Amino acid sequence: MRYLINFSYDGSNFFGYQKQVDKRTVQGELEKVLFKLANKKISVSASGRTDALVHALNQYAHFDLDINITSEKLKKALNSILPSDIYIKKVEEVTCDFHARFNVKAKEYIYKINVDEYNPIERNYIYQYNKELDIEKMRKAIIFFEGVHNFKSFTKSNSEIDDYEREIYETRIDVIDNIVTIYFKGNGFLRYMVRNMVGCLIEVGQGKRDIKDILNILELKDRTKAGMIAPACGLYLMNVYY
């Protein structure tokens, strides 16, 4: 039986989602727990990986399990063994041809920035920028990310992939109680893409870049032209759409 899980995690103490040798990862913890339940190795396939220190509010993954158990009992069993920084929100049976990564229609990420005084309690969850930003300029600039573009300037500098083209469906920037929340919804995201886009927007908000610089950077297809990468702690995988 193939199961799809919807889960959240606090990325503060993980070296990312993807399993790594001798490092604590989200996939590693999930597969350890499934081994205990099934008494054999179970491979978990997620909608995509998140990097070290990045959080997820709604991540999805599938796995195959041949033990006789209901979805609700499986959810309880997993949560009873998993560490407290991972929580399974929902378990459902899916068809054997469903794939948590390849069936994705869209993803949504948010990035949080504190423009007020430093808050040590939130340092692992909100980027403590702690200075003013020109939010209106950032709102005008973020629109240039919308649509279909080659995002080579906004991914890992030594990335060697066949296709850098992605489509951003929606963007927006909200500010509540001096916390800036930046939203991106698109059909897919390259490694470090959201953090690089946010870094560029921060530089616009600082007055270091012009609003229309976004278009020039996209056209150059050169990571060195895009500026700073925003810290991982402020990034959240908000949702995955199937």
Q: Please, could you describe this protein's structure?
A:
The mean pLDDT is 97. The protein is built from 5 helices and 10 strands; from the N terminus they run E-H-E-E-H-E-E-E-H-E-E-E-H-H-E. The chain has 2 domains: 2-94, Alpha-Beta Plaits (2-Layer Sandwich); 106-241, Alpha-Beta Plaits, CATH 3.30.70. Strands 1, 2, 3, 4, 5, 6, 7, 8, 9 and 10 form a 10-stranded mixed sheet that branches. A hairpin with a 2-residue loop joins strand 8 and strand 9. Helix 3 crosses helix 4. The chain is globular, with a radius of gyration of 19 Å. It has helices at residues 26-38, 71-81, 135-142, 193-205, 213-220; strands at residues 2-9, 45-46, 55-64, 86-94, 106-114, 127-128, 147-150, 165-176, 179-186, 235-241. By secondary structure, it is of the alpha+beta class.
SSE map:
Layout: E1 2-9, H1 26-38, E2 45-46, E3 55-64, H2 71-81, E4 86-94, E5 106-114, E6 127-128, H3 135-142, E7 147-150, E8 165-176, E9 179-186, H4 193-205, H5 213-220, E10 235-241
Parallel strand pairs: 3-10, 5-6
Antiparallel strand pairs: 1-3, 1-4, 2-3, 5-9, 5-10, 7-8, 8-9
